[in-house]
Design brief:
This protein is an alpha+beta fold and 260 residues long. It is 46% helix and 21% strand. Strands 2-4-5-7-6 form a 5-stranded mixed sheet. The chain has a two-stranded antiparallel sheet with strand order 1-3. α3 packs parallel to α4 and α4 packs antiparallel against α6. The longest helix has 43 residues. The C terminus is likely disordered. The structure holds adenosine-5'-diphosphate. Adenosine-5'-diphosphate binds next to α4 and α6. Its EC number is 2.7.13.3.
């Protein structure tokens, strides 16, 4: 029964995705068909004055449709990871200024970085993208202001929504906000590609699903805990690098604390 429920939920997600894309694609095709239709009428009447304009409109619509399918293909194709030992604390600290500007004046930023954090084994560039995306989601959940907290730690064991556990240890980044939170229904769909509760043009619904894919590809985990009215915590667990200074027995103390 659980498998059936899972399948049904998956079909619903695919259905939503397909409906959204079909809608956009249809609009673009309507542009192509409409322009060609007008062009045909003019040709029959041997009035060629506007012909070029109709052709331009048809080409522009077809090009937008082609760009949409290109984006879909790029989304389906997994970017290969450039995996290296990454100092998560240093990455977070390096983003502090950018995040400050992005969050605006009504959101305070708190960093709680574990000074003895080992290196993570992951792609630094995609990690940066993930952090910025998570912070933007947090900002969008706090329209009246609040606090964004970025915390790093080591997690021995991850207990997931799949009701199993994954043995670590992992290098963990928690991105927490004091925003409006998610209902259980929204939470259950949050990782679905193209699922968004944001107004048209403001959300793509791809952020969390891409970060989820990134976490899986890194052999890590992405988990969300959220309560309506009190906020959301997104936890990214990444494998520890065998080349960590900590693992090599060096003292990593205070290595990557942000300068204040
Ligand atoms: P997008 O941000 O473009 O909508 P995402 O995949 O990043 O796409 O997020 C999907 C949905 O999950 C959002 O539309 C929102 O409803 C919900 N969500 C994500 N992060 C948060 C958060 N920090 N607080 C509340 N809701 C969130």
């Amino acid at each position: 029964a659980r498998e059936a429920l899972f399948q049904a939920q998956k079909m619903e997600a695919v259905g939503q995705l397909t409906a959204g894309i079909a809608h956009d694609f249809n609009n673009m095709l309507a542009g192509v068909i409409g322009s060609l239709d007008l062009l045909r009428t003019r040709i029959k009447a041997q009035r060629y004055g506007d012909a070029e304009r109709y052709i331009e409109t048809a080409i522009a619509s077809a090009e937008r449709a082609a760009a949409l399918t290109a984006r879909l293909l790029a989304f389906g194709r997994r970017q290969p990871l450039d995996v290296k030992p990454v100092d998560l604390n240093a990455v977070v600290a390096s983003l502090q200024e950018l995040l400050g500007r992005t969050m605006g004046e009504r959101i305070g930023i708190v960093l709680a970085l574990d000074p003895a954090l080992p290196y993570a084994e992951t792609d630094a560039h995609q990690l940066e993208n993930a952090i910025v995306n998570l912070a933007i989601n947090a900002r969008d959940a706090m329209p009246d202001g609040g606090t964004l907290t970025l915390a790093t730690s080591v997690t021995a064991k991850v207990t997931g929504s799949w009701r199993g556990t994954a043995d670590g240890p992992f290098v963990t980044l928690d991105v927490s906000d004091t925003g409006h939170g998610m209902t259980p229904e929204i939470l259950s769909k949050a990782f679905d590609p193209f699922f968004t509760t944001k107004p048209l043009g403001q959300g793509t619904g791809l952020g969390l699903s891409m970060i989820y894919g990134f976490a899986k590809q890194s052999r890590g985990h992405l988990l969300i805990a959220s309560d309506v009215g009190s906020g959301t915590k997104v936890s990214l667990h990444l494998p520890i690098s065998p080349c960590s200074p900590a693992a090599a027995g060096e003292t990593p103390a205070r290595r990557a604390l942000p300068h204040r």
